[in-house]
Amino acid sequence: MKQLLLDFTEAPAPTFANFAAGRNGELLAALDAAVKGQNTERVLYVWGESGAGKTHLLRAFAEATASRHSRYVRAADFDGAIAPVLVLDDIEQLPEDHQVTLFNAFNERTFAFLLVSARSAPRDLALRRDLASRLATGLTYRALLLTDAEKSAALAAHAASRGFPLADEVRSYLLTHARRDMPSLIGALDTLDRYSIETGRPITVPLLKAALRPETAA
Hints:
The chain contains 9 helices and 5 strands; from the N terminus they run ααβαββαβαβαααα. By secondary structure, it is α/β, with parallel strands linked by helices. β3 (about 85-90), α4 (about 95-110) and β4 form a beta-alpha-beta unit. α6 packs across α7 (about 170-175) and α6 packs across α8 (about 180-200). The protein is elongated.
């Protein structure tokens, strides 16, 4: 259903390689160090508003540390099972009883490394104060939203990695008409590349429009 390309294309699996860092280079470096076991801290806390890529990074981290028995789970769905490398998304959604579970895991050193995300800084968390204090003892980074210019540059870089140029007007059209989170934008661009190869046409704004409405394409 190519006419639904820009709205419904499936985003690629999250990795560090397909994360557009923008101003988050220091955060990405800290996560890479944690994957390699080079961090001295047991906790890494990532906070920021929705759309900044927190879930992407947490899922990528869990996949990269799978050999260390990592576990990714949304905090609202946490069942209390503590993994050696525990990755909890949206920590502010952690149920009250499991806040106690996680606090005890800190004290008993049940996990080797904990990566969490939240929308607010540790001091502003609506959690038990003793747990919030524990979460603040490690490294804390704010995930910053990409600007449109950074998204455009990331799209151009991704296109170059796939071996084709991406004109400014095509990037502008994507940013205007596609979902604006980077995984969806990258997924749309990859699908567009395949459509370009299939039709034998270069990637242009008219091709984008044809991909949306192939039945009207010349």
